[in-house]
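call fold(seq) -> C-alpha cells
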Amino acid sequence: MKWYKNLYTGESVAHRKNRIKWKIIHNAGQIGIYVIALPSNEKNLLDLIPAWELMQKHYPKKQLYIIGLAGDYDEAVTLAAMIVCEAYAKTGSFCVADYLGENKTKKKEETQCTSSF
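ret:
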C-alpha cells in the first residue's frame, strides 16, 4: 500500500488524517471512513473503498495507491469528483494517475488513459 504525499482529505477528516492513516496501516478498525485510490482496472476513474475492507487478511493491498480520505460515502464521492474535475481542468483528460504523476515509469504510449465518461 502506498500513500500519495499530498493526500486529499474531506473536511470531516482533515484534522485527523495522520491518525486515520496510522490506523489503516496498522489494521485498526475505521468504521465510516472511505479511502480513495487510483483505479484497480482501466475502466474506472477512481476506487472508493470502505476502510474496514482493508482489514481483511486477503484484501489485495499491495497494489493499492491511496490518494484521499473521506469521513463517509457522500464525502468520498464529492472528493473523488473534485479530484477528477481538477485533473480534467489541468490536463484535458480524465486520467487521474497521469495528472498526479504516477505513470512516470511507463512509456508514453502506454500511459494513454482509457477511462471515458
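Residues 2-104 form one domain.
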